[in-house]
Amino acid sequence: MRAFLPLLLALSLPLAAAPLHSQFLPPDDLSLRQQAPEAQQLLQVTEYSVVVGAQRQSSQQPIPITASVTLRLKGKPLNKGATLSQVLVSFDGEGGKSLKRPTFDDATRTLTLNYPQADYRVIMDLLRNETLYVQFLSYANGHVWADLHTGSVRAR
Asked: How far apart are CA 140 and CA 22, in angstroms?
């Protein structure tokens, strides 16, 4: 019975307010995540598609041509209350400019993420070889956090 006492105490204590997968968050050096998040969306990616597109708006002179690479991720929500159904990951070729803020649209249940073009290969490698998760947290102070991460992987 003594061996089970610490386990029983741990199970009877209230759960911490930390979100699922909080172990994958970076250190909070600026104290932006001191309170529990207002919302969390956590998704395990089960399928993906790659869209490489180009568009030309012929009504403008000179005629601008834009090209984009977008990943569409789908999967299963992992936390209670999660409504996330898809993630659109866009890649920006201009590495020096700041990226757009992650956004979650409740109506379409879509999370939109933006990464530098240089991250495309890393993300594709993870999609092909690991179980990938998408996490989105929003806080009362306006701070948002979004990431793509693997679970803990044993080194070979």
From this structure: 17
Threshold 0.85, pTM exceeds: no
Residue type, 129: N
- 127's CB contacts (< 8 A; 6+ apart) are 45, 48, 71
In the sheet with 103-105, reading across from the earlier edge strand, the strands are 103-105, 110-116, 86-92, 65-77, 39-56, 132-138, 144-150
pLDDT in tens, 43-95: 999 999 999 887 777 776 776 667 788 999 999 999 888 999 999 999 876 65
For the chain, which residues make up each domain, given as ranges?
Answer: 39-150
